[in-house]
Amino acid sequence: MKRSFLYILFLMLFQFSFAQNKLSWQGYFSFNEIKDISQSSTTVFAASENALFSKNAATNVLKTTTTVDGLSGQTISAVYHSEGFKKTIIGYENGLMTVVNETDGSILKVVDIINKQLPTNLKKINHFMEHNSLVYVSCDFGIVQFNLATSQFGDTYFIGDNGSEISVKQTAYFNGFIYAATSNGIRKANSTNTNLIDFNQWLLVNPGNWSSIETLDTELIAINTAGYIHRYNSNTFIGFLQLPQASTDMRAVNGKLFITTPNTVFIYNNQMVLNRQITNTQVLNNTLTFTCATAIGDILYIGTKDKGLFSSALSNSAVFENNTPGGPIGNNIFSIDVTPNSLWAVYGDYDIFYNPYPLDSFGVSKYSTSGWLNIPYENVFGAKSITKIIVNPNNEKQVYASSFFSGLLKFEQDVPTILYNQKNSGLESISFLGPDYIDVRINGTAFDKSGNLWVTNSRIKNGLKVLKTNGQWQSYSLATILDDAEAGSYAAIAIDKNNTKWIATDKNGVVGFNESTNTFKKITVGVDAGNLPIANVRSVAVDTKNQLWIGTSKGLRVLSNVGSFQTESQLKANPIIIIEENLAQELLYEQFITSIVVDGANNKWIGTVDAGVFMVSSNGQETKYHFTINNSPLPSNFINDIKINSATGQVFIATNKGMVSFNGIATDANENLNNAYIYPNPVRPNYSGTVKVAGLIDKANIKITDIEGNLVYETTSEGGTIEWDTTAFGRYKVASGIYMVFISAQDGSETKVKKVMIIR
Length: 760
Fold this sequence. Notes:
four-stranded antiparallel beta sheet; disordered N terminus; mainly beta; signal; globular
């Protein structure tokens, strides 16, 4: 009884936790890579790389389920919908299972397979087959029973020779027996046998390597890995048809058999007569790769590797519709930029050694109130491995994307207009591989206060370039500060209030440059050379107190005042020392830091390679948030980039498995109080959040009183927004009534008075 109570309590806490998450988080996932599909009598369920969506065939209603709802960010390998139990089961490559319950909306994560004492690479879930309230889970080590009624696992069957692990690709129930297509033969066992954990009960029917097996009314069909279709004759499987390619999926639905190969979907009737075949050129073009297919009534659904889910009339229609929810091109978003009105994302990348090969051929994505706009690779003038993107702060319709192979791509009003490269600009190709090899590696970009665009050009002497507002290019040589500039690669650039450029390098720490004095300085490894823990710097950011935050592959450093560039011959950065458990420790000691961004309250959001996201206070002494895959909807702990919407405080986090945003409230300060406002207003009884006073100037004084003038709250803003928890200085919730909000500038030059109504 106690155990049942604890289990129910866990489920309640789990659901509550994700109910809270959904208030604070949003997901931005790609649904283009269809891993598997399933169906009920009315709805198709499609599992993409690490998210799920469904479409009702009658109403056309689309529903998505992501990590924000409680899914894992791991890679999905199989999905099955049980219409009888109204549950959708999702299997992952690492052995995790999640069960989505339609009845109450709960999502249960089941870790029994992950916890098995087996090699990690054998835990992949390949297929689900339901029979008599049990689901037979095909894995790379064998078969596991899962009870749909209790959501508990039962027996595990190791059915290889002498009870060894064996990769089971698919199972089928036929004439009282369970048949398993495996990497070492088709095996069968009597479904009523109570001792199926004994490998001797599983009889070898046919040897060989098999990819699938399925019951088609009175027939049992199997396909081997060579793409040869076989029929069962009560004793053995007899081959009768060779497919042109190996199959990727086979399933029977309503008396029809759907066999999918990368280029073609074959549809057979229950006599194994071919009714129809659909090639990828009929759906889109010959670059399309099919992964799976099914049908609901007269609607055919085809999943693809990178273009989502297509549908058509089963009865020989030539018109195909894309049913995929809007989203970015892919989930491995390498870099983003965010404005008050839009978000831009790019997917090209490089490894930890700044090697862009193999080159990526992706496009660019934009997200706005209109939804997702995906600009395909065919439209970006052949720009490969696009690694950074930046919006002109003075002209939001002008965007620049850095290609770490092809140069700098310019967009005007969402349309690519020019690719700057070695032929038409001041950009240069690497030269150490010979004059005929063209490789223009542009990465970090930043606009200065005059509107000039500064860019890094890796592996050349003149590694710093500027595109001026008049369209002219100028180059600056880094050979005067770097011993071997042609061997160097560059990451981010930050520009401070003095117009000094701070450049993150792979081998030389941080290079500072100010063109007004044509001065270069360097912060690198060694107590007397800059005090960095390693010369490999990945991120730089200047905060509102003119400190330079430096993220390296082995930790964090801070230059206390960027103004020291003008006065000190050798700049020195220091670690942030915090006290944890009465011990002095270095903040983010030896963490590989990929991104640092400063919010409107001067907090720092710091992304890492394997530890998720840290949000620390303005001086780094307090870690306010630490988000990981275990306590948040982050799909991965590998953070590629972080950016903040300065108007709303929304924090966008791009990982290698998808992007999410957190609804922060630290907005940038306004120039005046003309647009100060309060939300929500009124505060209704069912609202449990905080009241925000937004549109503030920096360091504004805010006093909140009841209608009789009794002070209940007072604070000073850092940035453009403050929060009030509707308590009287944290002691008790204030009563219903009208409350006055008095706002004044630090010097008293501006004042505003607002009202907020609270209804308890």
